[in-house]
TrEMBL record:
The chain crosses the membrane at residues 81-100. Signal peptide: none annotated. Residues 254-323 form the Protein FecR C-terminal domain. InterPro entries: FecR, FecR_C, Ferrdict_sens_TM. This is FecR family protein. Residues 113-208 form the FecR protein domain. It comes from Mucilaginibacter defluvii. Keywords: Membrane, Transmembrane, Transmembrane helix.
Amino acid sequence: MDQSQRKSELLKKYMGNTCTRGEFDELFEMLRQADNFDDFDLAFKNHWDKASQVATPKAANLGGIRQNVVMRLWSMRRGRVRVKYATAILLICGAALFLFNRYQKPEAPVYQTAQTSAAKTKVVLLADGTRVTLNANSSLRYPDNFNADKREVYLTGEAYFEVFHDAEKPFVIHSGKLLTHVLGTTFTVSAYPQAASPLNVTVLTGKVAVKHQQANALAVLTRGESATMSYGKTRFELTKLKNPEDAIAWIDDKLIFENTDLKQVAAVLSNKYGVSIIINDKKLADQRITAIFQGQSLQGILKAVTKITHTNYTTVNNNTYTISTNKQ
């Protein structure tokens, strides 16, 4: 296809409101550099003949705006107003480019997925400057670019978010039944799929709104506040942390348990190390401990926990662990 045919084809697509963004940019550049507009004459004439037979679309419609633009240009062309015509077509195309950007339906975003394995963390930098640190056995689905009126990502597991502030584009995290909505702040979200793992949001700075969509529960949190929804519950349990930074101790491979029941300890260890930890006694599961572990193996932590609680643990293929009051 020669240059003349390409010009005519692009203009025809433009006037028919079927050109892509790339084709529109190509046409605009051709018009900007053109010494004359003879190559566009046939396309203009054909459109003029068709447009004269139909009613003028409403001005609020982008296709209608383009038709009115073309009809005026062709009228000017027929009058041989060469200089004004050349100037007008550039100005109108510039306006059309603005309208194209304003009214064109955004292209579907392209998503990427970041994942972590057992006992590993990963930092993900999003297109808007937001920094996300994934905890072990977690995944984050996010777009290459945020081109809508809000920034949305999808989390499974746990992550620490340092959200870049943008008042015009709220940041929304989908994590199972949990919906977290912010403008710019730092906080953690824990939403592992296992039933034993409670849903949790803890705020380090700023303000966060969190909603459980099934229970229709809503909480607004500020620094140091934490909202937890345990399995089978319909309300958030709200707590105030003395040291909010403890919520991200896992970034430094540190686990902090402060008056935490063994059921929750087992859930945290299971998620971190990608194993199954079973407590076969309800009374034992409710027993609470306070301890800090850093840089230790799972076996080392279990030895310490069972020593504190005067229990024992057994393992099957280093994948399933059982904590029991009965000595084996």
